[in-house]
Design goal:
single chain; about 160 residues; alpha+beta; 7 helices; globular
Length: about 160
């Protein structure tokens, strides 16, 4: 993944070596956000908070981050915390305008239902380098919670 990203950036005429040397570009496959191989929402949020603070302390205007959701959720591919994470991330970005980024969902590695749930937390979808759009399936957190509660009520009938 790191090699691929490095190659892609170089092909886009980014001086990868120079940016890495001055720490304005960090490519990492670190998975400290996992606890015993399981995705830890709180640890991931703390990692992002620390990274934003570090970027600002280093004199940058902000931090732009991206993560492949298959990779982020660890080797067990346990996506049970995905919706909670995506909502927490969306709220964090709104509260911290110096953070921007893209959650990557590859259709060949993430189950369709998981991708649908994760994407519903975001107002915008970036399809590729030239196409982005308003997410027609976006659902504010309070509406999603109401929908989940109704579903639970129906299942108990």
């Amino acid at each position: 993944m790191i090699t691929g990203m490095r190659s892609y950036l170089a092909a886009a005429d980014v001086d990868v070596i120079s940016h890495i040397a001055k720490a304005s570009l960090v490519l990492s496959s670190d998975q400290r956000h996992l606890t015993d191989g399981q995705f830890d929402v709180e640890r991931m949020m703390d990692t992002l908070k620390d990274a934003v603070e570090q970027a600002l302390d280093d004199g940058y205007q902000g931090l732009w981050a991206t993560g492949d959701m298959t990779w982020e959720f660890g080797p067990n591919r346990d996506f049970s915390k995905l919706v909670e994470y995506e909502w927490r991330l969306e709220e964090f970005i709104r509260q911290n305008p110096s953070l921007g980024g893209v959650c990557l969902y590859h259709t060949d590695t993430v189950p369709c239902e998981v991708m649908r749930q994760g994407c519903a937390a975001h107002e915008w979808l970036f399809i590729n380098e030239t196409l982005s759009r308003i997410n027609p399936d976006y659902m504010p957190r309070h509406l999603l919670a109401d929908q989940a509660a109704r579903k639970t009520e129906l299942e108990s009938v």
